[in-house]
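Appendix B, Record 12. Input sequence as logged:
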Amino acid sequence: MWDHGSKATSPVFSASDLDVRITQPNRNRTSNDTDLMKQSKNNHNGESSGNQTNDPLSSTLSERERKTLHSSYVQAGIKWMGMLHGISSAVAEMKNGLLVVTVTLPESYSKPVKDEMFIRILKNCREWNCLEMERRMRRLYLIVYSDKGKAGFMVRSDEMDNEEFVQRAREIREFGKTRKLLYDRIYEREEVMGM
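Logged structural output:
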């Protein structure tokens, strides 16, 4: 509430804060997001952030940026694929414009899986635009594995006996230890953006 009788004061936020709020309207910010915004602002002003690169639009993701993108990708839909189908996927790294994404399918999963599904989830995750991946990525390298275990499961507690629960928990614990390469493919930027 404004006090019209007092003298004018400076706003609580700066113009750069306002720009961020306008360009990213529906985001719940965390302290990690704020750190990334400050780092990006410092880089625009020519200050060094002490990270791997001084260019905020570098074709290489810092570890913090990779983790942020991966977390957003998981939240955008990969976690549901894990719980419902036992499928796992991860943003592994991005160096020199090559974005590496891994997918691990359980051997028991028999339905056909299209690469496009994982790429669309990635492109539609919240951080894809925030990190300006469309401008930074030149190619996407998708590596698909199979595994004896499963990434997760979801059941109603009254539908499963204790023995079955223990068996599924073992599958999850072993997941990733028996990975076998199914195939890999490189997608050019234009292919990814066209999906």
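The chain has two domains: 14-56, 58-194.
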